[in-house]
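Dear colleague,

Thank you for sharing your sequence with our group. We've completed the structure prediction you requested, and as agreed, I am returning the results in plain text so they can be pasted directly into your records. Please verify that the sequence below matches your submission; if there's any discrepancy, let me know and we will rerun it promptly.
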Amino acid sequence: MSRALRYAPPLANRDLIVRPRLLDVLRSRFERPLTAVVAPAGFGKTSLLGQAVSENALSPAGEDRWLTCQLDDTTLSVLASGAFAAVGLSAPVPEDPRQAAVAVAEALWSAAPRHVALILDDVHLVLPGSPAAEFLRHLVGELPRNGHLVLASRPPLPLSVSRLVASGDAVVLRETDLQFREDEVAAFAESRGVPPELLDDVGGWPALAELTATAGPFAVSGYVWEELLAQLSPERRHALALLVAVGGADDEIAAALLGEDVDLRSLLEGLPLVVRSPSGWWSLHGLWAAALQHHLDSGQVAEARRTAAAVLSGRGQYQEAMGLLLDARAWEDVRRLVVEVCECCTALVPTDVLEGWLHRLPPEVQQSPEGLLLAAMAAEQASPSAAEEFLVQALEGAHGAPAVRYACLNALVHLAFWGNDRRRLEFLLEELEELAREGHPGAPAFVALLQGMLAHSVDEVRSALAAPGLSTRTPPNPVQDWLHAHLVLLRLGDAAAGEVLARRSLSHPATPVHGISRCLLLESFRLRGRLEDAERLLPYLLADMQPAKVLTSPELVTCAVSVLDVLGRHGEAAELLGRYRPVLGASLVAWAPLARTLAEVFHALSTGDEQQAAASLRSIVPSNGGRLSGALRASPVALPLLYVLLPEVRGRWDADPPPGSLADLHAGARALVELRERGSTAAAGAVPPSAWPVLRALLPVPWTAQLAVGLVAAGQDGARAIVEDLGPAARVTLRAQAATAPATLAATARSLLRAIPAVPTARLHLRVLGPLELRRDGVVVAAPELRRERVRQLLGYLLTHDRPTRTAITSELWPDLDDAAAGRNLRVTLAYLQNVLEPDRGELDPPYFLRSAGPVLHLVTDGALEIDVLQFERALDEAARLERQGAPSAALSAYLQAAELWGGDLLADVAGGTWLEWERDRLRGRFVSSAVRAGNLLLARGDTPTARTLAERALRADDCSEDAHQLLVAVHLADGDLVDAHRALRRCQQMLRELGVPPQPRTRALAQRLTPRG
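Please find the predicted structure tokens below.
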């Protein structure tokens, strides 16, 4: 099947009659969870659904998302990935049918207030009892109120709907409903230009009516197909038979089957039961197959399918191509396609698809080298040992078949890499070298990468990666791109080249490597000191971290935990560690224990438990005292952790220093050791400023603070910026250094400590949404200074402007005074505000909340000073982030948190200039839009009382919000309260008339729902 027909209804080749009685049922699909159309072939199910979609596009009652099922939709990964694509999800498909259904339901829910119908055509191709059928069953149960499912199927449906029909939550149109009524027969006959009596014997069957109208008045009942085909030339019948044999075609496939001069439009124009997609794919109804079944012999059918499969596989449409080849029983072509799909270490299609292919192979093909390769790739993740056995058998039987040998060696390298089996890798390298000598085009590149992997020294790695053609190998291989990036980044320390290669691996459509490639991309950012870029990429890495992926790529946990801890998000790091610790324990990958230990050690160091960290790390030290060969395979953070905490490994690192950006880590680790063990700043003085951002991105925060003390003590005064960046998180380390370090370091630590104000012991909460109120440890502050209008205005200005200058403040608050007088007033007002915020601060202590840097003032807003407006905006920003990630349930919690914080307009009891009015308008707009969004999500979930409360609050804030009016009308409709719904609608319409603006489509749709039908 064409992907063009997968996600869009086909276009009819002929005009269709409008059938209002059926379209009315389908238009109400947005009012119930499930609508089904169940009838045998030829009753116009697809045409009817296509008409319903077209009619809805003219006057939308909701949104339609289309998915045409195909033969391999019995596998969960194929059907669910199709549903994911239809609803706009790009996340990996979970292995559990219910989890996949929940993800689709959440995507539908996130579209609220819009109603969305997911239309699945040809559902009979989903086998009852299959994982895909389970997915559909769960999806029906998980649908939100704004989510609807439409199924079209030949009988029987692969899921039971009787209970839903009985409760009124489902409607099923059946064969008797789809049969033409008398008036429809007359309308159809008129549309085809034939007398109605010609169709007297069609029995209401739409397909037979179409065929009879085309065959003409001389067709004898029961012989319609014969009469129709008799009107076509033998060449045209042959061409149609070829197209039917391959399930339809576009211009490229048609040219391969019928010659370059074929014109599909001319060939198919005017024929009944033919549809096309907007992009040019043509498909003939299944009834054509029965009519043309004797026009080709089995050899011709098989050859046509082989030809079309070759075109499809060239496009990367492996599942469609394999389906044709299996139907053709073209086993030699099947074997070749298996090799193509499996040759790059990881299969290019999901595991359950591979299993489906395997089950369709006859025993002799299953036992062939290609069949064993397929079995190995299907078993690889669940049972690496079984996969290796299959591969060894396949390799033994693949003499004289270099492509099969290459694919098997690729997969065996992957397994040996997981097992960190050097001797096995050396043997496989010899096999690949032999293949390269025999002229296999892909082998030389893999030989170079494997030599780099096995290299003992940096020079050997460079020499291996200098092999000609390595960077320009074709076809692209995502696993080899990842391995190339891995070597360049973690053996050569070349972060710039590593970024390029990681991006290249990510650009490949083979999603199994995306998680590990994204991990390398993030590490390339950190090794260049680009912590902000790493932070932006982190949510996508976390989304990649499914348990099945962590089992085979444990380094994902080390990377994510260390980044979270560097960013100060220790709670999230601890939660992630707890979630994946059992998964890492079950992993068969050799470096999984190391990856887990590095993550635990980094987290322990970040939270101040260095004693536990050292004990954990020492537990995995090899008995030979080596530097833990392959430690960097898990994460670059391994270098400083091992070097600083395990003295016995330092000699190896110092004797063979790492190159590139890894040298920055080595230099930082050496400096830390000198500072911690000898109190020497010599090594710190040699750490260049260019390395500081790298160390900030890869060291635990306490170590970064400790290193900053040494840098400043060594005369690198610019390192004070590191401490400023760390902020209060550095104070614990600085206090410890001030108390226990040698004199020079202690003095430097005290100096830096003075520059970081102490966090006040009292906790302040400032409420500015509504009337201003300040609480200290829960008690309302009644300081007389806070009643001063200028103090309140200054506080508001500092809240709404990031680091304003003194001049900007005085021009707004004292515009009529000269600079000197305004400056004096600002200093006095600042003193009042300081007294309010920190009444117990010593005279010589630096202020914590209000800080000055030259002409710039800065209000520090962290955990010591909670401000409702900042919490409000953070909650809404978090909700927006969660919405982008497709997590509406989590976003709803954030929206409700923001709504709880809203107490009214910003500083409602403070007089201000235009700056304050602008900010009030902006925040009011954010509250109204978020309250409406939350209300719509709640409405779709069935929580009408809370949704109504939010609608009413939004209208109190802004009576001109049409969206809020719409929500209130919709809530009353959902509650069946037509009186209040009409009242709310009239209020909305009156507001729109006063503003002189037309109603939005949703307002018109709600009004239509309140208008009695008929």
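Summary note from our side: The two ends are 41 Å apart (CA to CA).

Kind regards,
the structure core
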